Amino acid sequence: MPARRRCLRSRRRSRASFTWDGVGFSTACFNRREDGTIALEGRRSDWAFPADSFGEVPGLLDGVLVPAMSIAGMLAMKEQSPALRNGRPWRDKDISDIAVLRDLLSKPS
């Protein structure tokens, strides 16, 4: 698969979850819009991510550099969830995660 486009997706799903060496993670297909914001494909296509949703430092999977979501992107994902077409109310875990992400985002990098 060419390095410039790495998107793991089946015919029915635009995201997938995996466990690799005991660590859970998920993949998803994103599109950058003309205004710089980022959109998810599939059933959550109404999710809008800020332009800085992926950090400057990539992750490394099996020797391949891959984009990794930034704190701003994770916060946008958590905050928008209840209002999405296929969203759900925040769980206690989501409320806790949002507080942690907001705290991390408020600290200088």
| Overall number of strands | 7
Distance between the termini: 34 Å
**Which series of helices and strands comes N to C?**
EEEEEEEHH
Total number of domains: 1
* Low-pLDDT sequence parts: 1-12
Overall 3D shape: globular
Structural class based on helices, strands and sheet pairing: alpha+beta
Portion in strands: 15-25%
Taking Cα atoms only, what radius of gyration do you get, to the nearest Å?
A: 15 Å
The major β-sheet equals: 3 strands, antiparallel
Helix content: 10-25%
Tell me what you see in this structure.
The protein has 2 helices and 7 strands, in the order E-E-E-E-E-E-E-H-H. By secondary structure, it is an alpha+beta fold. The longest helix is centred in the last third of the chain and has 15 residues. The strands form 3 sheets. A 3-stranded antiparallel sheet has the order 3-4-5. It has a two-stranded antiparallel sheet with strand order 1-2. A hairpin with a 5-residue loop joins strand 3 and strand 4.
Write the SSE topology.
Elements: E1 15-20, E2 23-28, E3 30-32, E4 38-40, E5 48-49, E6 59-61, E7 64-66, H1 71-80, H2 92-106
Antiparallel strand pairs: 1-2, 3-4, 4-5, 6-7
